[in-house]
Amino acid sequence: MKKVAVITDATSAGFFFPAWYRYYGGQFGAANLHVVTYEGMKPLFGGFELGNLWEINAKYDDTLRAGVISDLVGVLLRSHDVVLRCDVDEFLIPDPARARDLRSYVERNDLPYVTAHGIDVVEVEEEAPLDMSQPLLDGQRRFGMRAAALSKTALITVPMRWAEGFHGATVPPVFAGLYNLHMKFADIKSRVSWFELMREGIEPGTNAHRYFSVGDEHLASVHKFLESRPRQEEETEAAFEARFLASVRRNEANGIYQGEFFRQDFLIRLDRFLSGGDLLRAYDGAAMADPSPEMGRLRTIEPPSVVPHVAPAFIADFSGQGLNLPPFPYLDVHGSDLVRREDVLLFGPNNLVTREGDWSCEARGGKEGFLKFYTAPFYDQVFPGPKPRIRRGPEGMRLDVAHLAEQDVTLIDEPVFLATPLEPAIWGRWITCVTAKITAYKAYGEGRKFMCHVTQDWEKAFLRLWGVPEEAILPHDPGRTYLLRDVMTVEFSEADLRVSAKERGGFYEMVAKHWDSTPRPRRIFVSRLSRVRKYPDYRVLRNEAELAAMLEVMGFTVFEPEQFPLETQIAAFAAAEQVVFMGGSGIFNAAFCAPDARVVSIESSARYAGGHAAFFSSLGLRHGVIFGREDESDPADHKRWDLDLARTREALAAFFAGS
């Protein structure tokens, strides 16, 4: 283990000093903390165990302290592997993606020195005063502002010298995932009191005295200006870093490398600096509510639309129950937006929640219905793993993560594009939702990982076919909980399982890409027989084999899509002029049918028939519906059923006669 010394200078044992002492002493031990103080101030620190307490026989002076501490760092390096240098209101914290704490970061670092990214922590109006008895980096302050002047070389293994304020050193800056969180603006009342104390210990007429004599009104106005800055990031950390490094110049007289002093004009969230466990606590009890429509919206991909409804050309009811579909002249079709969220909790297929409780998922409408899917007992059987709970009460829903430990949460620090659909392994969701997300990812998600639940061969083939490189895929387990630092996704106005005009164009492009001149059947029957053999108790049409034989006599080819590569499936449906579907996910292959194709769905009940008909309508396809008869004695949710074959033959013959 490396031997580490931490050095600072202080004029008071109050204000931030106790928090500084707890933070660095907790990680490196009090005996490794070294403090420089000024004339007559040594007794103030009698209550603190320290490795060294040096008193300078002079009042506070910025130039003097830089020189003295530069000398002492050189001395400490004779007996220590690493020295950390920071002010008492500066807290060095690593990127959690690199290390869980500062101690771990120091152990892993192999650079001779590291410059910390400077961030001014800012108190905003709705926040309570800092509780100095609690960890300052445990979510008490949520916002900060990048400031180039605070980008200081703070981790040292080789001797060097610093300029006044430690804003420059005799080595050029090198960034490596370490951050300097500066607390001066984190509590305005403490800052005013601290400035008053500092003035008392500084020689009047000096630059330092003038700095600390700006007045309470000025301090308050600066604070007000900072906390009123916008909270939408307009320049990335990498761009800010590049701008700072480009400004660095070497002073030939003293050998100091120093950059320009500038700051960004917006606030950034500080959630990313919390460890997984700390950040989890920040989400506990969050009241889940809809975010504003504009929150995180990058662009509208396509607005919602109302289109003429293509009603079924016929509905043949052989159920004996008088089944029908309600008539309506128009069809609502979802719109879609490209959205971005930062520092969000991801659970289930695509529930995203901020610390404030802003809750979004794949669809803005009908979210509560899909939350029931997440909280149903079967969900944990299909997707086991540690998950948040949802507490429901008179005031609405609250997120409960108190039972989760840090190891229960996967932290994803790199930018991702979330693509897992609301029903992760359902073909219809991949057709109507994942394809749209892939299109948006390819257009706007450059540099991001494609985060998606991909476990089955057909899902992997689907992504390959649609042009998502295997190396870009970040596997997503909907049974686990994640903390995402930066996520982009597509949010639909409704999860309606319909195809918009823009999305329809994408399917036509895919058909054109895989079209060939191979002769293919013009009539196909999409059978479920292989699935029946695999799942004999799920939605079984008991006379499907007889139905298939009857349709073969009528000139149909029995086609089981899952038995063929995706390219073959696409080409088969594109070539077909007449298609008979069994109610189920296979229906969504109609997205590849030509606009003049005719299709029929044979349904066991009316449960999904309306949605299937609306899907056909959104594609502009001429279609019909046939209802079979369920076995009411079957206790299963999806009951066994039968079909009147003679009447089905008549209905199909009449519908297809004109095509």
Automatic annotation (TrEMBL):
Residue ranges of domain Glycosyltransferase 61 catalytic in the record: 514-600
InterPro entries per UniProt: Glyco_transf_61_cat
GO molecular function: glycosyltransferase activity
Protein name per its UniProtKB record: Glycosyltransferase 61 catalytic domain-containing protein
